[in-house]
């Protein structure tokens, strides 16, 4: 309705119709007032034929992905599927054999070997995280250090996430990652 939200709202607590009434642009300034939250099919359509990859987060349970996969298959848009397990990789590949993946969290050598058997290197980005308080819950093996980065880099492309400020950018750049996520 074009007004700021006074109380936090969880997406899972509102209906789709209610969600579509929110003004997603108001927080960005008056010029963006009235901007609605785009639907996935709108985003995929807008990106079709462009040199961009849409990164799809892993918040959707694997067993509930069919509508998502249906939407992805309707467009010629590059997407990458976020995952931390091989079950999801196999599930997506059954529909989209050449799918790209962003893999994270389980960075033990056995897990990385299995992932690399399933996904070609040019279609796989392995994510690591800066050791910051907001990711204190992650296992040390998933956090960037000289040793961890060199070990993971041997498996393929590496991305560094959890970049929050200019100092983090410089910390991440010293490892020469393939991708940095802001």
Keywords summarizing the entry:
182 residues, 7 helices, 32% helix
Topology (SSEs and partners):
Layout lengths: L15 H6 L18 H8 L5 E4 L9 H9 L3 E6 L2 H10 L4 E4 L5 H10 L5 E6 L16 H8 L3 E5 L4 H8 L5 E2 L2
Parallel strand pairs: 1-2, 2-3, 3-4, 4-5, 5-6
Cα-based radius of gyration, to the nearest Å:
18 Å
Task: List the strand order in the largest sheet.
Answer: 1-2-3-4-5-6
Unreliable spans are none
The coarse silhouette is globular
Work out the helicity level. 25-40%
Element-level helix/strand string = HHEHEHEHEHEHE
Distance from N terminus to C terminus (CA atoms, Å) equals 30 Å
Number of strands: 6
Report the major sheet.
6 strands, parallel
Q: What integer is the average pLDDT?
A: 92
Helix/strand/pairing class, anyone?
Answer: alpha/beta
**Residues in β-strands, percent:** 5-15%
How many distinct helices? 7
Walk me through what this model shows.
The protein is α/β, with parallel strands linked by helices and 182 residues long. It is built from seven helices and six strands. The protein has helices at residues 16-21, 40-47, 66-74, 86-95, 109-118, 146-153, 166-173, and strands spanning 53-56, 78-83, 100-103, 124-129, 157-161, 179-180. It has a six-stranded parallel β-sheet, with helices on one face. Strand 2, helix 4 (86-95) and strand 3 form a beta-alpha-beta unit. The longest helix has 10 residues, at 86-95. The model has no long low-confidence stretch (mean pLDDT 92).
